[in-house]
Amino acid sequence: MSTELMSPRYAALDLWPTGDAVQAMLEGQLAAAASVQSQAGAIAAAAEAAAERLQGGRGRLIYAGAGTSGRLAVLDGVELAPTFNWGSERVVPLMAGGMTALLTSVEGAEDDGDAGEQELFATKPTPCDVVIGVAASGRTPYTVAAVRAGATAGALTIGIACNPGTPLLAVCAHPILLDTGAEVVAGSTRMKAGTAQKIALNLLSTAIMLRLGRVHDGLMVDMRLSNRKLRDRAAIMVGTISGVSRSQAEAALEQSGGRIKPAALVALGAAPDQASALLQDAGDNLRLAIARLRGDAAPAA
């Protein structure tokens, strides 16, 4: 596996001046980011297929992984709630060794394929679900078994790995290969491989939310207003979308229970009940709801 190789480039790394070592590690991180470029099309295709399964309030994102890969997957899923108001019941994290393994290494857990299969089936997967398996090696038995079980249940399966020709990429419907090569510190996949996986997961989940209408003009119009900073940001969003003053935007948010999408419609002249109805009829797509409020033709995709 390329991620386990020792690179001659970093021979005697421990004898290098610290500045040179840091520069070499930075170069590795930049190379990791570049490795995602060739997979942009694969990530986009996976996102579109996932959004189709998840449309209309159906289905869940089920993340499966071990070690660093699993922790990155869990982080991606957790962040969907505040950013896109994605319900916690619609994110299922499966971590080899359980959630204890987020903070403490659970030896041998990643080698337990039976546990991966059983834990995936325990979630009662359906064809509306999307299973995302993440493994730098592409061979982790727990992750491969979980993804295979998801496919058996009819769920859409996506695999993210950093080695070509590996089982994870073979068992999933949408393989994403991040060929990061040898690490600066041989086998330390928390570095280059981890960086590439984090980028790919961010791109994938954000693109899914984009296709589900949870982004409008590059704005997080479904975010939860959990603190003062986010309430201020929401008022700016409503004002930007509707063209009203700050005070009018804040009033619209107040009338709409702090929800940005209906607040934007209220700021544009809709009554609160009408705003809710417009969004429901538009499949929660703010752009389409605005067009209908204005009596415009449906906007282009």
Automatic annotation (TrEMBL):
Xref: InterPro entries: Etherase_MurQ, Glucokinase_regulatory_CS, MURQ/GCKR, SIS_dom, SIS_dom_sf
Residue intervals of the SIS domain: 50-214
GO molecular function: carbohydrate derivative binding; carbon-oxygen lyase activity; ether hydrolase activity
One matching Pfam family: GKRP_SIS_N
Source species, domain of life: Bacteria
GO biological process: amino sugar catabolic process; peptidoglycan turnover
Keywords from the named record: Carbohydrate metabolism, Lyase
CDD domains reported in the protein's UniProt record: SIS_Etherase (cd05007)
PANTHER family: GLUCOKINASE REGULATORY PROTEIN
Protein name according to UniProt: N-acetylmuramic acid 6-phosphate etherase
